[in-house]
Amino acid sequence: MTLKKSHKILLVLFGLIYLISPVDLIPEFLVPILGWVDDGVILYAIYHLVRYNQLPWNLFFNKKNKP
């Protein structure tokens, strides 16, 4: 599933804002390793989106359940 250019730009912007923001889903000061892992997953998703023009659905779904 490829995305429109405007959706791609918005997702990259939201991802970068999330990485820069001090507010995280899993804060680094509570659980340091998991806090870094959630940032890494977001960074990987942004990279995959820019590089391959699609989100890495294999992180969330197997091939049978791909939307």
From TrEMBL:
The keyword Transmembrane applies. It is a multi-pass membrane protein. InterPro entries: DUF1232. Keywords: Membrane, Transmembrane, Transmembrane helix. It is found in: Endomembrane system. It holds the Pfam family DUF1232. GO terms for cellular component: endomembrane system. The keyword Nucleotidyltransferase does not apply. It comes from the Bacteria. Residues 9-43 form the DUF1232 domain. This is DUF1232 domain-containing protein. It comes from Desulfotignum balticum.
